[in-house]
């Protein structure tokens, strides 16, 4: 028995003798079939779009749709994150990608609902990271159940602060792009989710291109970008980098766009690519100007579709429980009062 699609194809073949019209009808049928579970918006005229954008430009100076990262200099350089964007946060192991993602999730979830997919850590371990970031207590103490009475009281006092955040966590091992999109659609509908975090993109899979990892990652990247755009949400995903960073000389360990692992499409699809780089990981304790880089990290804005590329310094605490704003390197050179007197005193 023929299915509905086969019947439609046979009808088109029977009723269309002109080759051009036949080709058009078949293409249209294919598109309709692909859109069976989706929809396409109507086209808008340039005058309509201009009027809409003019209304935005003439309105309040602050855009309520912009999502602030919570890091002052990063927000200044990027203009914040926007709905419809795919943002890639890349770094080599040990740089602090997950910790940075945890910081961003805590900052952003104070203002808008956030969905966090953790494919690398269990929900219990990720929650330990979140609690560690809020309290400053090292995450290992949570895992080892080695908390002092004072630390337990501190955690109890932070419960309200944690519950004020609209943060939803999913550690499902079913990490296919199709399953993720379906869950996100439900969370957008039920919880009003506006930002989706994924840690990390190389752990995702799809039913397509299973024998070609580069094509598979390219497909996942494009699907994430399309999902962000179609549903007006911001997707922020971490990505591993290739080992090429490690083979470069000590003076050039900063990540570059070609270092994105397994697919150049990540660079192409992303609206922003931000690398996290800690010089001290490579025993580099001074930057090019001689500034001390201990407990510092650099956020390298390597791609910014709507702005300039740049570099931003942030700092971390010694237990590596959190990243913070960094006010900038200060010149520690100063004269003592005795030396000033010597300079003022004429010599003969």
Describe this structure in words.
With 348 residues, this protein is α/β, with parallel strands linked by helices. 41% of the residues lie in helices and 15% in strands. It is built from 14 helices and nine strands. The chain has helices spanning 4-15, 19-34, 46-58, 72-78, 97-108, 123-135, 139-143, 149-157, 159-163, 177-191, 213-231, 244-247, 265-269, 337-344, and strands at residues 86-91, 114-118, 167-170, 195-199, 234-240, 272-277, 296-304, 310-316, 323-325. Strands 3-2-4-5-1-6-7-8-9 form a nine-stranded mixed sheet. α1 packs antiparallel against α2, α5 packs across α6 (123-135) and α10 (177-191) runs parallel beside α11. The protein is globular.
Average pLDDT figure = 82
By DSSP, the count of extended strands is: 9
- Largest sheet, spatial ordering of strands: 3-2-4-5-1-6-7-8-9
- What are the secondary-structure elements, in order, as H or E? HHHHEHEHHHHEHEHEHHEEEEH
Number of helices: 14
Largest sheet: 9 strands, mixed
As a whole number of angstroms, the C-alpha radius of gyration is 26 Å
What general form does the structure show?
globular
CA-CA gap between termini: 113 Å
Strand content: 5-15%
Going by helix content, strand content and strand pairing, the class is alpha/beta
Spans of at least 5 consecutive residues with low confidence: 332-348
What is the helical fraction, as a range of percent? 40-55%
